[in-house]
Amino acid sequence: MRVKAARLAEHGQPLRIEEIELPEPGPQDVVLDVAYSGVNPVDMNAAQGQVATDAPVPRTLGTEGAGTVDGRPVMVRGHGIGTARDGLWATAAIVPRAALIDVPEGVALEAAAAMGVAGVTAWRTVTEIARVKADDTVLVLGASGGVGSIIVSVARALGATVIGQTSQESNAEWIKQRGADQVIVTDSGGLTAAAADLYPTVAFDGLGNGFTGAAIEALEPHGRLVLFGASAAPDGQVSLRSLYSKGITVSGYAGLLESDEAMRAAIQRALQALADGQLSVPVDLALPLAQVNESFDRIRQRQVRGKIVLDTMA
Question: In whole numbers, what is the pLDDT of the chain averaged over residues?
Answer without folding.
Answer: 96
